[in-house]
Amino acid sequence: MTSSQTILVVQSGCIVRKRRFHRMVSLALKPEKKDSSDDDDRRNNNKKKEHDDNEPPTLVMVSRDDPCMAWCVLGAWIRVELKISQEEDGTATEKCTRNDEDPVEKKDEKKKQNDSSGHTEAVRVELLQCSPDPNVIPICLQLVAEGALPLSVFSNQTHLQDVHQVEELLRLPPRDKQRKDAIIQISRQLKHGVDNNNHQKTGPLPHIKRWQWQILERLEQNTPLVVPVPFCRPVSNSNGVPEDNSDPTSSTDDPITTKMNVPDVNSMSIRHGISRVDYLKGKKWPQIRWLLQRLQPMMLDDGCTTTRVLDVGGGRGDLAVAVALAFPQAHVTVVDSNESSLLAGRSYAQQSLGLSADKKTSFVCADFATYAAQENHNFDVIVAWHACGDLSDCALQFALSCQANFVICPCCYTKRYITGFEPCWIRDHNNNNCIVPSSSEQRQSNPQEEIAIVQKLAETNNHPEVSQRAMKLINCMRLHALLLEQQQQSSKQQPHDNGTVTIDSNTKKSLGIRLERYESTFSSKNLVLVGEWSTS
């Protein structure tokens, strides 16, 4: 009789199958494949590819009570310590202690042997990389925040570089759009990785079908106010966005370049893959400077009148604080449904504005559609920066009802968040009031499908020229429908060719609208709706 000893063997792999038994869980691990930089090794690997793919996975048994079961799911990369029994002659035999037999339920002996055949008991399980399953990612994020898992389970494949990012993400409500988008982004990065240019690896560019092109071109031809490039006036740095090489994390003599809203200067932006400082300085800050210049002629400057500004979806208060600092006569009200963002915004305003924070800013936690339906609103200017989907349309119609100037930058063209609200441009298209195609061009499709196609084309980021055309079309439809809406409410006059409509024959008050754009390097969603009321 030969004696044996137990040794521990470490093995890594990806979970490709998971089976649950009464007290144990069976995990099938596909061994980790190492990249080869040597050409000969690569050729040899290619020759053996078929053999490697057919190689059976390693079967591991883990107790169902083990805490690792929270993240041991398909797609997770793990490292396990296996208990192996080795005979004196050097022969290793796999040993599994399942203890899964139920004395009440007597099963066939052969089946019990097959259940545990080829399995090895796992003494210890370590997570190397989180599964791309969106349902598991929040669990692992919480464990990272609690210190139960290392950040490396994400950081090697995603833009998460410090625990502060994780904590900031977890502070958002589970149904918050920013949180859901970030988790989807993390899931994609765990699946495909990130290339050297900090862009998500993608497959072939999506194909735009011919009939989709036809819809876009036909609507462009039949939509009022779609005019050549001068209508969407590009703004250069010299005429629109001032050159700003200041450090956004430090205060200067310029009151606008206040300390930016950065919890940690080394933290990374989850959505953009760069540090928050770089994102604020290179992308968001130039957009704010551009907006401030657009707001300049809209501000009341008689020395005693307050300009009441409403920031729709203002969240953390970056824009609101910048407006309050740039225009001493302004009072900014921020309306957002994210309570945690508003708390951060209040703190940022107090830090930047000091004792005047409460006099210069207000933060209201509310759904904007509900807020807009209330009475006694009296604002001079409405701003909504990167307002998602129909939130932009709701802000436009609210500005119309208040007869307020507006600067609105739409985003997320396919999104519809507001229950029971139909944007006027979609309603007009469905009723053939805004778009009236000729009989020869009439396509056998419903208007809702055409709208959905154009919205989808606006989000084709891999085809920026198509996205720009679709965004321009949608925004021109928005502006024209807005003028028609005001015409129906207050006047029987037709909109003028210069993009204005007179709404009061006594005071000659009219609304002038235009579509502008800023540098696409700051954001791909760079078209801005601008409206100004004037009295002649």
From TrEMBL:
One of its GO terms (cellular component) is cytoplasm. Residues 30-54, 95-114 have a biased composition (Basic and acidic residues). Residues 283-415 form the Methyltransferase domain. Coiled coil: none annotated. It comes from the Eukaryota. Residues 247-258 have a biased composition (Low complexity). InterPro entries: Methyltranfer_dom, SAM-dependent_MTases_sf. It holds the Pfam family Methyltransf_32. Residues 27-60, 88-120, 236-262 are annotated as: Disordered. This is S-transferase C-terminal domain-containing protein. It comes from Seminavis robusta. The lineage of its organism: Eukaryota, Sar, Stramenopiles, Ochrophyta, Bacillariophyta.
